């Protein structure tokens, strides 16, 4: 009885260990299955247009799909990096200006008055406002970096 319990325990340990190894790959595999089923009709049309050549159709389809994914991602990320660099440069030079808030901002539910007040403070004295809200700005910037990183990882997983 003890020998059977030890064997079952080791088998359970081995199964748990195998699941822990496979777990990171479950989500990409599931997405791969979903995407493969969704795009198969388009692939079949491309294959027939290329005279039934399966390898050529797969290569062309993969290149098109990756191009459609990578091109906008690179354009958006490049634009975001450039914009962030311009904002940092203008702030460091003291030439960054904040436009005045629109009157409709005050009408936003719940947060309108507070946003308009902070926006007006930034308009009048940006350095003081940045110093006053530095911890909140740091939290927001960390979250933005985390979201960007997560998005990049998701795109890479999708490509893989």
What are the low-pLDDT stretches, counting only 5+ consecutive residues below 50? none
Distance between the termini: 47 Å
Q: DSSP helix count?
A: 5
**Estimated share of beta-strand residues:** under 5%
- The ordered string of helix (H) and strand (E) elements is HHHHH
Query: Count the strands?
Result: 0
Helix content: over 70%
Alpha-carbon Rg, integer = 26 Å
Largest sheet: none
Shape by Cα distribution: flat
Category from helices, strands and their pairing: mainly alpha
Mean pLDDT rating: 88
Secondary-structure blueprint:
Layout: H1 2-49, H2 54-93, H3 112-124, H4 126-132, H5 134-159
Protein model, in words:
- The mean pLDDT is 88.
- This protein has 160 residues and is mainly α.
- It has a domain at 98-160.
- The protein has 5 helices and no strands.
- The longest helix has 48 residues, at 2-49.
- The radius of gyration is 26 Å and the shape is flat.
- Helix 3 crosses helix 4 (126-132).
Would you summarize the structure shown here?
With 160 residues, this protein is an all-alpha fold. The chain has a domain of 63 residues.
Keywords for this entry:
single chain, 160 residues, mainly alpha, flat, 84% helix
């Amino acid at each position: 009885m003890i020998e059977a319990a030890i064997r079952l325990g080791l088998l359970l340990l081995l199964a748990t260990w195998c699941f822990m190894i496979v777990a990171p790959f479950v989500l990409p595999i599931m997405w791969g299955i979903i995407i493969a089923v969704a795009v198969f009709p388009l692939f079949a049309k491309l294959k027939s247009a290329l005279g039934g050549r399966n390898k050529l159709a797969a290569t062309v389809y993969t290149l098109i799909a990756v191009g459609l994914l990578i091109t906008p991602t690179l354009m958006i990320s490049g634009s975001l990096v450039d914009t962030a660099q311009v904002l940092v440069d203008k702030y460091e030079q003291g030439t960054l200006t904040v436009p005045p808030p629109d009157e409709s901002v005050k009408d936003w539910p719940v947060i309108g008055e507070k946003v308009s007040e902070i926006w007006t403070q930034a308009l009048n004295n940006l350095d003081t406002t940045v110093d006053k809200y530095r911890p909140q700005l740091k939290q927001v910037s960390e979250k933005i970096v985390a979201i960007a990183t997560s998005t990049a990882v998701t795109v890479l997983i999708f490509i893989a």
